[in-house]
Specification:
Layout (H helix, E strand, L loop, with lengths): L1 H13 L3 H9 L2 H25 L3 H12 L5 H8 L4 H31 L7 H24 L4 H23 L8 H22 L8 H12 L3 H11 L3 H30 L11 H6 L3 H5 L10 H7 L4 H12 L25 H5 L17
Helix pairs in contact: 1-7, 1-8, 2-6, 3-4, 3-6, 3-9, 3-10, 4-6, 4-11, 4-12, 5-6, 5-8, 5-10, 5-12, 6-7, 6-10, 9-10, 9-12, 11-12
Length: 376
């Protein structure tokens, strides 16, 4: 599975335009919103579910481990498959994986200690192996995509094939381990994922963040899609006997829920126009074609400033920030001096007389010969 994981992440990273990928770190709004949803919002939702439903430790602790883990690499695959902002998804994977060695123990200490008064022993070897695979695959993928841009579509196909094989492998490994657990088990484990999708969609749509629609879709997917393998490895070391079987089934069932939820959410996002793929294109086309190249050319700066600079130093309000970001991603006509998008590209008609003369003109009564200028 590690080799398939490497091919999946490498293929997704190699299919991203390097300049578009770098722009996500220069304009940090999307990454910061995504990390906040993933490491602050989702663990809090998991903790609330554990407390409200009064879950036993053999279910509640593995669930808290899942929602505190870094993002899973399948999130890149869903963003690629349905053409959400893949560059932001990969950038968020880099950021979340890098800080997870600190955030995972911190969240486990806060929420597991707060819910059950127990300490969590983390098997760091099982933690760092998938983390290292993801980081190395992203670095090599970005380099290959930059050096061999003509093969980006092929890299994406390789990543998609690896993702499908990983799903098949996970199904056969986990099939039957979470069956016959009771309705309360299924509802409790699924709730943090489903609530995370809904709440992160509201958070990412806050106008002051200025996120484009494909970026909002990527943030939502990154928020709820967790690395269940890390949580499973930790659960194996914490529980024994029958409790171990139940504890391990929590991350496995969560993995099933997050895959189904992200597939449904991505499909709805595409039909609602929240991805780079046009909603009018057939489903087979968006699953096969790569629409990311059309996004990379649109990610440019406005007046040599990032969105973060505009918010911090210019005091832009929410609507201004969103307008700036939309002009970055989807420019229409840009004035050469100010970098502000022009909403009416048609030139004004040449008229004689001053603007004051024009303001004082009376409406003409003739439809054939309108007055166009001159002093009254």
């Amino acid at each position: 599975p590690d080799s398939l994981l490497f091919c999946l992440v490498w293929g997704m990273a190699a299919s991203v335009d390097s300049q578009h990928f770098r722009s996500k770190f220069e304009n940090r709004s999307g990454i910061l919103v995504g990390l906040g949803c993933q490491f602050l919002l989702l663990p809090l939702l998991g903790f609330l579910v554990v407390k409200v439903m009064q879950l036993p430790s053999k279910v509640g602790i593995p669930l808290l481990l899942v929602v505190s883990s870094p993002g899973g690499s399948y999130s890149n695959w869903w963003c690629s498959l349905f053409n959400a902002d893949l560059a932001l998804s990969v950038a968020m994977t880099v950021a979340s994986t890098s800080i997870s060695s600190g955030m995972l123990p911190l969240n486990c200490f806060i929420y597991v200690e707060g819910a059950y008064g127990q300490k969590v022993h983390i098997e760091w070897q099982g933690f760092f192996i998938p983390v290292a695979v993801v980081i190395v695959a992203i670095v090599l993928g970005v380099v290959c995509g930059r050096k061999l841009p003509q093969y980006r579509d092929g890299f994406q196909i390789l990543g998609n094939i690896s993702g499908i094989l990983l799903i098949v492998f996970s199904f056969f490994v986990s099939h039957g381990t979470w069956r016959h657990r009771g309705l309360g088990f299924y509802i409790a484990v699924a709730l943090p994922c489903l609530l995370g999708l809904l709440v992160s969609a509201v958070v990412a749509s806050y106008p002051r963040f200025g996120l484009t629609k494909p970026e909002r879709t990527a943030v939502c997917i990154e928020c709820c899609y967790q690395n269940v393998g890390i949580a499973q490895a930790i659960a194996l070391t914490m529980f024994h006997g029958d409790d171990k079987a139940i504890a391990v089934s929590v991350p496995l069932y969560y993995g099933f829920v997050e895959a189904l939820a992200c597939a449904t959410f991505s499909l709805a996002s595409w039909k609602l126009g929240f991805t780079f793929a046009p909603p009018t294109d057939p489903l087979w086309a968006i699953l096969v074609r790569n629409y990311q190249d059309g996004a990379s050319g649109r990610s440019t700066s406005v007046a040599d400033r990032s969105l973060g600079d505009s918010l911090l130093f210019n005091g832009a309000n929410g609507s201004d920030a969103a307008s700036i970001k939309e002009s970055q991603e989807y420019p229409s006509l840009v004035m050469p001096d100010s970098g502000v998008g022009v909403t009416n590209p048609l030139p004004e008609p040449a008229v004689s007389g001053s603007r004051g003369d024009l303001a004082r003109m009376e409406p003409t009564t003739s439809m054939d010969e309108p007055v166009v200028g001159g002093s009254q």
